[in-house]
Amino acid sequence: MHLFGKLCSLVGPGRTIEGEGFDPSGKWPAEKSFLALGLDLEASCALGKEFGQNAIVWAGADAVPRLILLQ
Question: What's the pTM value of the predicted model, to 2 decimals?
Answer without folding.
Answer: 0.77
